[in-house]
Fold this sequence. Notes:
By secondary structure, this protein is mostly helical. It is 57% helix and 0% strand. It contains 4 helices and no strands. InterPro entries: UCP006257 (IPR007384), YqcC-like_dom (IPR023376), YqcC-like_sf (IPR036814). It comes from Xenorhabdus hominickii. Pfam families: DUF446.
Amino acid sequence: MTWWQFLSPDPQPSIRRNIMSIENQILNKLQLIEATMKTIDIWQSYPPKPEAFESTEPFSIDTMSADEWLQWVLIPRMRALIEQNACLPAAFTIAPYFEEVYKEQIERYLPLLGHLKALDNLFIQDN
């Protein structure tokens, strides 16, 4: 045998599989978030006005509701990053913001908050 036959075609297959696993888990959580938003009737049929997307504030808090930001900004951007094989955020925590937003009707939003926490945890594990 020659020296090159001992080399694996993929020198780090377990790392690559783990990355794909994380991406698939993120996509799964995004699907669960979307389905839950529809179930609790906060999924919207129409996007906010174009100028709402020009916000530079965290969560577009000055131009969108939390639900709008989740539906029209976070979910599409995360899916696009994964589809483009782009780098995912290194640190990611959104559940505390949504806990504060939904604190007056916490029971209604518990399933959604659970999915948001699970999404946060995927980014904590990845670091």
